[in-house]
Amino acid sequence: MGGSEDDVIETSLGEEDLYDVTTWEERTRTDRAAVAIYRGLTDNWRRVFVALAVLLFVAQLAATGFILFLQPALGVLTFLSVIPAFVLAALIWYGDDVQREPLAPLAVTFLLGVLFAGFAALLNTTLQPVFQLIPVVGTVAFFYVVVGPVEETSKWLASRLYAYRTPYLGAAIDGAVFGAFAGLGFATIENFTYITNALFTAGRLPMSRLASIAVGTAAQRSFVGPGHVIYASFAGYYLGLAKGNPENRGPIVVKGLLIAVLIHATYDALVTYLPLSGVAFIAFVVVYDGFFLALLYRKIAAYRHKYREATEHPERTPS
């Protein structure tokens, strides 16, 4: 039988009042409450999400702020630890010579990356003990099921909630740039947390020993930060591609996040279980991240090539 049952009722009964049967409109107090709640959620969910992120960020700082007060040098170490990630994000931004994004929206995206890291930290900390009940396999599953998806989605949201709604993110190459700065913000607060946690774990040791631990942790984290930038740039690239293809927006976004998650989780699994230390660790990070950076650069270069081809030869553009 063709058509839906609703169609049959409405066609047969014509003008009869079918409220709450096959039709609906705002009539009762419950209806009005439902409308108000829906509008409140849809109009303000971004504000609520950011507010929660701010609260988590404040709580995160409260847990580590005292040690920062005692040791202001930790702020300097955190800054130094993200210099490689900053340089990489700046290079991706500079590589977008089609139409470089202004610094203001990049700064907002960076700050959102800082704020949303709190969600990732909370979920990671809460769920990790559950997965660790199963040795090795549980930890690997934790990277692919929790760490990768949670952290990459957090960075993706830093671009989606603000930059995506502006004209500055209008193409795939723009998305890669904003993703890079979201990853930079995420790496900054994560590095700070790792450095301060290292000191908390160390306990009461001579000042020279604590300084050595802090410097060593900062040095190690300096090699981790660029990965956050690269992985988030992949997700951002596809976010920009999705904006120009609304009919396939969902699958394109999912593809970008899947790529970022798989690269991220695989990195975590390998550095956890491969016998890497010192020079071997540095070499692995350079090769691993360098490989995916090259793939990302190829995508950006392909976009630039097509853009220049289209603008230099407008007669090729179909009318």
Structural commentary:
The protein is mainly α and 319 residues long. 79% of the residues lie in helices and 0% in strands. It has ten helices and no strands. The longest helix has 42 residues. It is globular. The model has no long low-confidence stretch (mean pLDDT 82).
Task: Give me a quick take on this structure.
With 319 residues, the protein is mainly α. It has helices at residues 5-13, 29-70, 73-81, 83-95, 103-131, 137-160, 172-202, 207-243, 249-273, 279-312.
Question: What attributes does this structure have?
Answer:
single chain, 319 residues, mainly alpha, 10 helices, globular
Principal-axis shape equals globular
Span between termini: 44 Å
Q: Uncertain segments of ≥5 residues (pLDDT<50)?
A: none
Helix content: over 70%
Average pLDDT works out at 82
Largest sheet: none
Number of strands: 0
Secondary-structure-derived class: mainly alpha
Order of helices and strands: HHHHHHHHHH
Q: What integer value in Å does the Rg equal?
A: 24 Å
Contiguous helical run count:
10
